[in-house]
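During the reporting period the student researcher (J.K.) took over the structure-prediction task from the postdoctoral fellow and processed the backlog of single-chain submissions. One of the processed entries is reproduced below for the supervisory committee.
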Amino acid sequence: MKESLPALELAIPVRARDFLAGGDGAARIRQVLQQVGFPPGVIRRVAIAAYEAEMNIVIHSLGGELKGRITPEVITIIARDAGPGIPDIDLAMREGYSTAPREIQEMGFGAGMGLPNIRRCTDELEIHSAPGAGTTIKMVIYNR
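J.K. obtained the following structure tokens:
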């Protein structure tokens, strides 16, 4: 991506419990990064983090949105949802901890790896959440 280009911005709505479309937003972000020439390793990290955040919206919320801001130096993804919120973020960051309903886990989702995978793939991670107030996750991945 040429450094003189302006930032690219994306806004992708995510519907609750739409497992057929779940992941489409992350795929769209991945396509844009490929089209503008980011290295495969950076694209992989962004795609995984965006997918996990998107699926958390699908599984746990009433719906939300993925927003992406892409510059030559950094990719910022913000996942914001209207949902029940996370009462204990430290607990939610533990691998294997999940509040996904049983029927969701039986579909192969909600294994408690979403937030830990996001942490592994990002250079910076901020999670803002409170019970009844929804959740906002800011993910930053540097192009280096």
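The committee noted the following: The mean pLDDT is 95.
J.K. will present the remaining backlog at the next meeting.
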